[in-house]
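Help!! Second protein's tokens look totally different from the first
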Amino acid sequence: MLTLITRPVVSVPFQLGATSPLLARSFSTPAKPLAYLDGYAQPTSAVQRGLTFLKLNRPEARNAINSQMLDELAEAVEIVREDGRTRTLILQSTVPGAFCAGADLKERLNMTSAAFHSWHTKLGKTLRAIETLPFPVIAALDGLALGGGLEVALCADLRVAGPGATKLGLPEVRHAIIPGAGGTQRLSRLVGPARAKHLILTGRIFDRMYAYEQGIIDELAHEGVPQGENAGASAGYEAGLRHSINLAAEMGKGGPLALRAAKQAIDKGYQMDIGTAFDWEKALYQTLYNTNDRKEGLMAFKEKRPAVYEGE
């Protein structure tokens, strides 16, 4: 089950607003709604707009990815790609203590060979779709992120680990398979082939500090003083989410077109030889030159005020 919510980038007072037809769309079957989209009115400051949450919500299985969840995830990614409102996406879980347990192995036991190959192909395409979203994607990790769950996180541009992120890893070799939805390739590009081999060949399970030291996690969230409903087991979960929102707000100070161009420059340029990559960077830079956002940035600097970017 998935929940997709668009809301302000920072914590400010806001009112529940009328949803557009797109945001009101449901991913669920008619008989039993399992996931939904909801929209929030935007606050007055344009720099606070455009943060979307995509929430994994299958608590009874610790968000293990079954066929229905995969279908919903694939559809959600395409909707948020085209919605025109999202400037930053946060991938998170609604389940404290579990980002994603990976593939649903119980379902897989009953799959035919044809059904498994179809599921596997769709998983790879869906993770690639997340990875190629044009705006920044943050994965807010809590509890466990194992196998396909960590592979989902590796598709994000940045990964934040809350205090409770204690079981991370790609243990597929222990089940006589390999990380097969891009995990061997993404981890190798992230930490280098030697470290990737070490983690994948051993199937090692590690905690957030080890992941941070290896370069898998970008930022560590620290638990604040538990109060009220944030006390107890959910405190670490809330800390990771708050940190992710703050990180999104920090990126939100930049122009949304520039953020998209920077992501494209790095992602595609990394696959090119250095000369071609320089040309690619130059081409993207030139697309920004005549934008209203660039002019606003210069004017804001001159007037010594925060820039208000509209993505134009």
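Here's the second one for comparison:
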Amino acid sequence: MIYNLALTLAQQPEVVERVLRVTRHRGFRVTEMDMHLGDNGTTRLGLVVESDRALELLSHQLSKLIDVTACEVLAPQQTATRYPQHASA
């Protein structure tokens, strides 16, 4: 299954490393990551992860991390619709 998460983080150097470590330890593989620094001391991190495990195993643990202020589960993504194949001319 492919899942999409949106996290709000404090701007700390080690917070992304912690998020990725928890993701790996919970048995999820990161397939896509998008990060944007905010003006108010926060960072928005978008993760697309893949696993056969229940997403709650990951989202609950991420929300407990010290510098994670929000963990939102978004609608599941299908990679085929996200990256359509272009026809060659």
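Reply: Different proteins will give different token patterns, so don't panic. Residues 78-89 have pLDDT under 50 and may be disordered.
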